Amino acid sequence: MELETGQSTVIEIKKDNVKELAQVLKTVVFKDFGMLYAYDSGLKITVDDGAYQQANAFLKPPFFSDFKVREDNISLKLPLKTIYEFLSIPEGYTNSVKMSYSGMFDPLKLLIEESDGCVIRGKFNSSIADQELDFEFDDATVVVTYLLKTQVLKEIFKDFDDTSKTVKMQFSKSVLCFTTFGEVGETIVSIPSRSLQMESVKCSEEVEYSYHLNLLQRMNSAFALASKLVLRVDERGVLSCQFSIDHGEGRISYIEFLTVPTAETDE
């Protein structure tokens, strides 16, 4: 399989550090398939479960070594988990990957060049992207916004009591509070607004909502990479967690999870 280049391709991308791309993709592939949207302003990778949660990765052109998108409105459904596994084959940070796509119904082609000269080729079938979930998350309806460092929050999420089905989150101007209800009893962890982990707080209304624990645990890979998190809640309780990943040299990627709260009958 040869990797096409030139005007016959509508997507032509190169990334010198394939491990970096694999790490970002790992944060969102909680399902086998997802969508890839290509714009001249970057790539958006979207995975959702059809009902309760959606994850998005946003990669701007500076994240890549070379970035060319020659058509508008490119949207593909792809086996993203398999692509992640393919990108994870080489070890180290000195391997590169090239991505090529020639047009509708053609496969996405990837070519990994390892530092020792070994070449690995992959071809992944694409189809027309599904209609993605629209959470209608609007900045105008946000009631709470926290800007946090991820160091402590990462440990909190990792150590949630696995026997608790849900996590109750209480949002206020003075504190962000997490409560689990497991087999050993109730556990409460709080981060006060005066904490060094909390950089800023905007709160127009004190609210509390519960979320399924297994949905929150999907964010653990994003916590492992990110240095900062913008956590927002809208008036319906939809939780937005936007992770900022600093790759150095001014290159930043963003991961966002949108999560629907549980109904009271689920408690």
Key structural traits:
Proliferating Cell Nuclear Antigen, mainly beta, five-stranded antiparallel sheet, 5 helices, 267 residues
Distance between the termini: 53 Å
Q: What's the quaternary structure here? A: single chain
What is the average per-residue confidence, as pLDDT, rounded to a whole number?
Answer: 92
User: Which segments are poorly predicted (pLDDT under 50) over 5 or more consecutive residues?
Assistant: none
| Domain count | 2
Using only C-alpha atoms, the radius of gyration works out to 20 Å
Instruction: Find the count of extended strands (DSSP E, 2+ residues).
Output: 19
Q: Approximately how much beta-strand content do the residues carry?
A: 35-45%
Query: What is the topology, as strand order, of the major beta sheet?
Result: 10-6-2-3-4-19-18-17-11-15
CATH topology type of the largest domain: Proliferating Cell Nuclear Antigen
**Largest sheet geometry:** 10 strands, antiparallel
Second rung of CATH, namely the architecture of the largest domain: Box
The percent of residues in helical segments reads 10-25%
The global form is elongated
Report the CATH C-level class of the largest domain. Alpha Beta
- What's the tally of helices? 5
Structural class: mainly beta
Order of helices and strands: EHEEEEEHEEEEEHEEEEEHHEEE
Organism: Caenorhabditis latens
InterPro entries: Cell_cycle_checkpoint_Rad1, DNA_clamp_sf, Rad1_Rec1_Rad17
Protein name: Proliferating cell nuclear antigen
GO biological process, one term: DNA damage checkpoint signaling
